[in-house]
Amino acid sequence: MLVRPSIAAALLALAASVSAQPLDPAIGNEIGIEQRLDEQVPLDLTFRDENGTVVQLADLMHQDRPVVLSLVYYECPMLCTQVLNGLLRSLRVVSLDVGSDFDVITVSIDPGETPTLAKAKRDEYVGRYKREGAADGWHFLTGDADQIERLAEAVGFHYQYDEETDLFIHASGIMVLTPTGRLARYFYGIEYFPKDLRLGLIEASENRIGSPVDQILLLCYQYDPATGKYGFAIYNSLRLAGGATVAVLVMLIVGTIRRDRRLKVSGTDADGRPRPSLASAPSTSIPHRN
Questions:
Q1: With contact defined as beta carbons under 8 Å apart, do 45 and 150 qualify?
Q2: 290 domain-assigned
Q3: Is 277 inside any structural domain?
Q4: Cβ–Cβ < 8 Å for 181, 204
Q5: SS3 of 64, please?
Q6: 63 and 144 share one domain
Q7: In which element (H, E) is residue 143 found?
Q8: pTM of the entire structure?
Q9: Are both 14 and 50 inside the same structural domain?
Q10: Residues 161, 257 within the same domain
Q11: In a domain, 278, yes or no
């Protein structure tokens, strides 16, 4: 495994910039994503689309297309953006097309957010996706608190609002629904392997339900825009990434040192050719002026 020094440095710098702050256990126990496979999402829930039009979830579903569902909020300082960016990266690799093979529904968990914010997000991500028809298949919704809470409860998305920071504490992940709105697959974290996502979409299109997956708890908590630092959010992930990077670098350095020692002992270079010795090297004479 080769890690470029620039990437390693970036990971270490990012990990170093994160300062841990304890999360209140009373709050932490209420946050997470509970897998409710094969349960029905209530399709009669109403939201507002990017144009402010009231729509039901049923209006956005198609009988022959599965749905990727993501719950975020549009003014989230960082983690929600990472969820959407990770989803976008996967979608750009997957051969299936948004708007023809499947749809994406992104719902804000903040009842104070507006269709204007939703439209800005839709334009940004559809523009970056760069495939025809995506504007009709990727929906960014806002809604009232009761509708948001019903949807979040149905899919097992547990979050809390922190009045002190005016932020929502939540975990990161996406879900895949069958064309009839049943929960078929969960993906945790902020990176979703395209092959796994494609398989999940294909299975969901056939109304097949996947198996439970291991949870990776990644929380959005206490982001300080002034310093760019997080508290509990992604701290453990970055710490692990930084530690793994250091370990890889150490192994590379140790491996290089050992290889150089073996080459010196064997008298060969990196290509297996004999090293020229001083004794066998052609002599050169420097003319002396009298």
A1: yes
A2: no
A3: no
A4: no
A5: coil
A6: yes
A7: none
A8: 0.69
A9: no
A10: no
A11: no
Range of the domain at 266: 1-18+234-271
User: Quick check: 199 pLDDT over 70?
Assistant: yes
Q: Are 206 and 200 in contact (CB under 8 A)?
A: no
What DSSP character marks residue 273? P
Pick from 188-202, 216-230, 236-250 the range whose average pLDDT is largest.
Answer: 188-202
**Are 66 and 189 found together in one domain?**
yes
Per-residue tokens: 255: 């491996």
Say which range, 66-75, 181-190, 228-237, 245-254, has the weakest mean pLDDT: 228-237
Query: 209 with 238, same domain?
Result: no
Please state, in angstroms and rounded to a whole number, the distance separating the CA atoms of residues 220 and 167.
Answer: 9
Q: At what angle do helices 79-93 and 115-129 cross, to 10 degrees?
A: 40
Is residue 168 located within the same domain as residue 149?
yes
Taking the C-alpha atoms of residue 210 and residue 133, their distance in angstroms, rounded to an integer, is: 28
DSSP code string of 175-233: EEE-TTSBEEEEEESS---HHHHHHHHHHHHTT-----------EE---BTTTTB-SST
284 part of a folded domain: no
Burial of 270 (0-12, 13-18, 19+ CB in 10 A): exposed
Place of tokens 């994503």: 33
Query: Where a domain ends, among 214, 231, 248?
Result: 231
Calpha distance 27→169 (Å, rounded): 9
Q: Give the pLDDT score at 219.
A: 52
Tokens at residue 172, please?
């990161």
175, amino acid identity? M
Percentage of the chain modeled with pLDDT above 90: 54
Count structural domains, the chain: 2
Give the span between the Cα atoms of 241 and 17, in whole angstroms.
13
C-alpha 80/C-alpha 124 separation (Å) is 14
CA distances (Å), 163 to each of 147, 191, 221, 222, in order?
A: 21, 29, 12, 11
Residue 55 and residue 190 in one domain: yes
